[in-house]
Amino acid sequence: MWAYCGHLMIGMGLFTILSGSITAIFYDDLYHFIMKQQLAIDENSYSYGLWVETPIDMYMKVYYFDCVNAEEVMASNVKPLLKQVGPYTFREHHKKTDIVFSEDGNLVDFKSMKTWFFEPELSNGTLDDEIWTLNMIAISAAETTRWPGHWGEEDYPFMQFMMEESIKQANETMFMRTRIGNLTFEGIGSPLLEMGDVGGPMGDAINASIPYDKFGWFYSRNDSTEYDGVYQMFTGKDDIYKVGQISEWQGYSNLSHLYPEPCDGLYGSAGEFFPQDRDKTSISYFTPDLCRPIFFNFKEETKVSGIHGYKYWLDSGFIGNSTTNETNTCYNSQPDLIINYPYPDNFTATLNPELNMPLIDGLLNVSACKFDSAAYVSFPHFYMADPILLDQFDERSDLNPNEEEHSAYLSIMPKQGIPLEVAIRMQINILYRPLKYVTMLENVTPTFYPAVWFEVTTELPADMAGQLRMLEWVPLFGNIFGYSFIGIGAGLGLGGVIVFMKMRAVAGFV
Questions:
Q1: Which of 13, 102, 270, 349 would be a feasible disulfide site paired with 233, CB 3.0-4.6 Å?
Q2: Which of 22-26, 194-198, 342-346 has the highest mean pLDDT?
């Protein structure tokens, strides 16, 4: 009887050791197979529903600067005195539409619809608040006449004279007092935005340069399926490490129509997914708001709701000019900053080739993405930028750059590539500068004016955090169970050998 027990224990031990060895060796392959089935985007996968309609609401906080001495700035060209207002908080919801899979299922085309809902209890102010801010309609309209040849041959200085007259008739000034709701989503009207109604070639040219019927920083975006354009991304069906990576945007497979080499590459996450098994280098994300990929560099290991993650952030290289980040040069061009070209009576539409206003470190030129407007992105309050940008404004202004409030980052689970938290913070600055035949700009000091800044953040719900904490342990189960089985099997086997040897000794003694 005892001999039988010894044989049984040895057999069970060997079987358990074999099971543990197989688990330890092949669990990783099984894990990746299961993850591929669940994370790859198709209509039957677990991740499909999460991708189509994001289950986590995001929050967008919008801040403006009230130029409290705007009338004095216009009359005497003094430094603007800026007082921050906000946040005006909106709950943001994302949903995919017009979804079409390729025949092999490796690619999917879609549009993204974003919807915003104002949250009064999370805001510091109401949408009926009024502030003094830069008149973007008048400034943008005037800027369209800056460069000779923009409207056609021999358009200079005729178009500047015409724009000057149009601005006067519309009673527009360099700064305007307006309501926050209109400035954000509802839009501001102006006769200047109706100039294209004249029809004919001139009307078409005006509409191409001034393509909106109203102006608002987020005007026409709410519930729009068109604003962010048409995406094509990899589903991960053929290669799970490509899931969520962009393949085409607006029908283009590269960005050569916007940027020269080597900045013409189109790549990065399309939004919700990042490749698995991340390292401590960088990750890329494509944003249609800038018409380009942006690069988050590894900063540190972190914990989010008890879940281990890697934190990546946008560092100074993102907004660096050619002096501080040479690789950024082809994204961050300078030539349109030439402000002092000649005005002789026999003007021949030849620009002065001298670069007399170099791009200041801390600004990203996004004019190629924004209808050639004089728009520049920075971190809020010019965080990580050249201090000369702060010197443009009255020293009493509410400009206090710091990492905690003004940095941009995201944290992901490195093994799974799932985002844990997101904080994207950007400031849009408008360059206003002298324009000889437009009175309101004739003698202004060139200034990068912070028109608006916003932050978009997410927070994991408690139930989802619990699921992700469990998911964090799943890759370790192979080693935990495998080596536990091997240990149990070795114990059983050793116990069986001891029993068997003792029974043989007893039998020999008898």
A1: 270
A2: 194-198
